[in-house]
């Protein structure tokens, strides 16, 4: 509970900074690991959109 309180309103900025840096590292690692999947999903969605668009045009 004490750790949670210091995380919510830190007495000194070091705890918040270290927690923020840890969160950033975690999110960057997750994004880096999931990047091919995200890219593939975006490409698939855009491909479907292009096919749909061409079907509408034709």
Quick structural summary:
By secondary structure, the protein is an all-alpha fold. The protein contains two helices and no strands.
Please render the helix and strand layout as text.
Elements (H helix, E strand, L loop, with lengths): L1 H7 L4 H45 L1
Keywords: Membrane, Transmembrane, Transmembrane helix
Largest sheet entry: none
- Give the C-alpha Rg: 21 Å
- Helix/strand order, N-terminal first: HH
End-to-end C-alpha gap: 63 Å
C-alpha geometry: rod-shaped
Number of helices: 2
- The tally of domains stands at 1
How large is the share of residues in beta strands?
under 5%
Mean pLDDT: 71
What class do helices, strands and sheet pairing give?
A: mainly alpha
Q: What is the assembly state of the chains in this entry?
A: single chain
* DSSP strand count: 0
Q: Estimate the helix proportion, in percent.
A: over 70%
Uncertain regions: pLDDT < 50 for 5+ in a row? none
């Amino acid at each position: 509970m004490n750790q949670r309180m210091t995380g919510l309103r830190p007495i000194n900025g070091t705890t918040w900074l270290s927690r923020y840096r840890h969160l950033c590292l975690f999110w960057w690692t997750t994004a880096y690991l999931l990047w091919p999947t995200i890219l593939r999903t975006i490409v698939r969605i855009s491909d479907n959109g292009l096919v749909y668009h061409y079907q509408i045009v034709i």
